[in-house]
Amino acid sequence: MKATDVVESEIITLVKQSEERCPICRVVDKAVSGWLDGALSDLLHNEEARAKLNNGGLCRKHSEVFVEVVKSNSSIGPLSASIMLSEILRNQLIAIKAKEKRSRLERLRAPGKKTEGCYLCRIALETEYRFVNGFRVFFSRPEVKHSYERSETIICFDHTTQLLERPTDVSEWFVSVQRSKISALLDEMDLLINKHDYRSKESIGKESSSWVRAIQTIGELSRH
After folding, report:
1. What digits encode the pLDDT tens for the residues 188-202?
2. What's the pTM value of the predicted model, to 2 decimals?
3. Is pLDDT of 74 > 90?
4. Where are the domains of the chain?
5. Got the DSSP string for the chain?
6. How far, in Å, are 68, 131, 174, 182 from residue 171 at the CA level?
């Protein structure tokens, strides 16, 4: 199976991997963590990265990613984290003081500065858009379709709905495969539930992780 560009190459790898988590979620998280890891590893000499993080601050989700990246990379340590976070906090203290002087209807931002929100959210959205479109196109290749059918990975509900927003020749096939994969996951959870019955003598196997795979698959219905 040969790829014609970087996105297709990454999609081939994602589909072939045995991981059960949504491949688009995985590549988005990888892009965010990778950018942040690179920025913090060379923070003292990377004014551009510092400015991007400082300008928009961090959302709750990516604040947690920030902590995970720092803890998982011994070369970063508390120095880079403290420098970055102190800059963000000082900037946001200015914003709080400025907010005190303005109407509640005005946007919270430091005087004279344009704020654009969490920069890591922008990386996530750009990566998500690129790979949703990539999967939409690349699923037209029979070998990729077959590889996804055989894999244990399930594209999550949110990315499933995004893939179906623009119908293609493979949309019907994709829905059928998703239904099959999710039905199989439901069967595993039913098995897990049944084995917890006090009358059951069967040991619990692979289905023990079915609830984790389910939480990785579901989305927020009201948003779609």
Report:
1. 888 888 777 777 767
2. 0.81
3. no
4. 1-10+17-131, 154-224
5. ---SSHHHHHHHHHHHS---S-HHHHHHHHHHHHHHHHHHHTGGG-HHHHHHHHHH---HHHHHHHHHHHHH-TTTHHHHHHHHHHHHHHHHHHHHHHHHTS-TTS----TT------HHHHHHHHHHHHHHHHHHHHTTSHHHHHHHHHSS----HHHHHHHHSS--TTHHHHHHHHHHHHHHHHHHHHHHHHHTSTT--PPP-GGGGHHHHHHHH---GGG-
6. 37, 16, 5, 16
Q: What are phi and psi of 5, to 5 degrees?
A: -155, 180
Residue reference for tokens 């970087």 = 6
